[in-house]
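Researcher: Here's the sequence for the chain we discussed earlier.
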Amino acid sequence: MTDFSAWTQACQAQTETTLAECLPLSSITPQRLHEAMRYAVLGGGKRVRPLLAFAAGEVTGADVNRVQHAAAAVELIHAYSLVHDDMPAMDNDALRRGKPTVHVEFDEATALLVGDALQSLAFDILTAQPLSDDPATQLNMVQLLALAAGSRGMAGGQAIDLASVGKPLDLPELEFMHIHKTGALIRASVLLGAQCGTVDAATTTALDHYAKCIGLAFQVVDDILDAEAPTATLGKTAGKDAADNKPTYVSLLGVAQARELAQELRADAHKALAHLGTPAERLRQLADFVVERSF
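Model: Thanks. This is the structure I predict for it:
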């Protein structure tokens, strides 16, 4: 087994190549929209969601040529959400992945259309070629991503987040928000990668529990980094959650207790994978990466 760093770099490079091939060229009309789509997606980001898809695919013996397209579809949904989240009507941020946000670099109307187009492209990719030997499974994959992105998933979580500014939330309320806003797409990444292979009910249950733990852990660490890391490290405006009076794990628990929670979630994620053996090793390494990351 190659070391974790080499594996992540290989998966990230494969994801970048797949995304670059799937995105329309900026020379194709409408050129400005296509240029902005490529600007929003390529050349940045940790690609955590594709990494989770590739790792879950290893558990179920999935063909990487299938996983790479499922991974790209999830990453496009994630990229679209960032473009819209950064707009003035949402979080009003000027920096993303160390460069101007899409609405700053282009304009607000273009940014809105970029998000719309990236979302539809994700489903185009997910349906363009066989990702499973069973058509019913592939149809379920489409539904899974749709639910994860919609009002009962990421979009719903964002709506709760916007409605919660300046309001005190208790821990269950905060978890409910982030299970939807952040966790739903992370869960979809794991399950879509797994469904590109052969997966049984017990494995699905284990992967689902793992994904829910990692989704929350990712957000807890994000909140800690927003409070402690500088803008140059994050690639986005640091301290913005506190400045915007948003409820976070840090505002509710403090940094020390938030770190403890992240460690508990990591341990729970590892426990969920206990019976899956060596094929789940990349998922274990990703759990460690999510909790220990500094950006």
